[in-house]
Backbone:
């Protein structure tokens, strides 16, 4: 049964199962997905389903299971993440409840209710004891953009406007190191599970203490993109209507997370000997989502990451050209 697990991780899996369940029999083991960061398996122990996660043994400033598992346990204790039954950060192994997911399009009462419940979920997460800190998000993004600029994935000068736009935002955004909160930092639809009754957040590998608008900006990008849905999400999150200053900061933060996703996806898709891209022609976000929903693109594959990275980089440029962006910069500088 363990043959579906890579040989170098089988003993880690066996040890975790023994620590969590003793001699209880493993009755099923099925790989669900795998990516650059983890192998995910649905398992059954004595007939009950669980999720086995084997994290990459690669470590860096952001990916650290010692911190990620602490964040995941905090979220699980708050009822935001599925219950955690075993976590060994040294081996990079975690076992949690298996939550069968349904499409978010089936959410009761439609997108408006979903937007409100997502705002409430973000508020509950930010009310937990603060996650451990990592580097300043702006610093992390600056390094990521620097890596992309020097990667050779794009022809020289093609990303100059991205660098200049990032600098304008970085200088204007009122960063408050004392007001950072627990943050998932990647709550895209693939990391949100709807079990038919309620929402769960999964995949906490990049969780850490961050600006309170990071998660909110990502949620509005993917699941509350219209002004009406955005307003519902923000009011549920805040408990009141947002003021002009907060909306301005949200516009800038959305630009930052677009750039983050564009850099990260492009770098993850990189392969030896790749020919540099000479333009940023890309699908629209709606076209990209349709390609995924129709099975023409498979999330997590290098092709989807490459295309998704260009979508995010192109959308970032489009955002820079709007009058709303220029106004948000002015308001943010005023504090």
Residues:
């Amino acid at each position: 049964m363990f043959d579906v697990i890579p040989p170098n991780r089988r003993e880690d899996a066996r040890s975790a199962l023994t620590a969590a369940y003793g001699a209880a029999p493993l009755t099923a083991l099925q790989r669900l997905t795998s990516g650059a960061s983890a192998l995910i398996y649905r398992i059954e122990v004595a007939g009950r389903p669980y999720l086995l996660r084997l994290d990459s043994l690669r470590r860096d400033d952001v990916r650290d299971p010692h911190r990620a598992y602490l964040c995941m346990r905090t979220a699980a204790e708050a009822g935001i993440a599925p219950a955690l039954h075993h976590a060994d950060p040294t081996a990079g192994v975690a076992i949690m409840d298996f939550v069968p997911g349904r499409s978010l399009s089936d959410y009761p009462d439609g997108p408006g209710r979903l937007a409100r419940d997502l705002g409430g979920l973000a508020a509950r997460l930010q009310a937990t004891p603060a996650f451990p800190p990592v580097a300043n998000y702006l610093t992390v993004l600056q390094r990521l953009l620097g890596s992309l600029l020097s990667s050779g994935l794009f022809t020289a000068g093609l990303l100059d406007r991205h660098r200049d736009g990032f600098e304008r935002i970085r200088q204007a955004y009122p960063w408050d190191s004392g007001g950072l909160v627990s943050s998932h930092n990647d709550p895209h639809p693939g990391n949100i599970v709807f079990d038919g009754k309620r929402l769960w957040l999964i995949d906490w590998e990049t969780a850490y203490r961050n600006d309170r608008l990071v998660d909110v900006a990502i949620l509005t990008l993917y699941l509350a993109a219209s002004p009406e849905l955005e307003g519902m999400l923000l009011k549920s999150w805040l408990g009141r209507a947002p003021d002009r200053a907060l909306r301005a900061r949200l516009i800038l933060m959305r630009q930052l997370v677009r750039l983050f996703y564009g850099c990260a996806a492009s770098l993850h898709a990189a392969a030896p000997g790749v020919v540099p891209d000479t333009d940023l022609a890309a699908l629209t976000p709606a076209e990209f989502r349709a390609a995924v929903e129709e099975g023409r693109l498979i999330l997590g594959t290098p092709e989807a990451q490459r295309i998704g990275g260009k979508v995010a980089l192109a959308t970032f440029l489009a955002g820079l050209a709007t009058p709303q962006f220029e106004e948000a910069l002015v308001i943010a500088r005023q504090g």
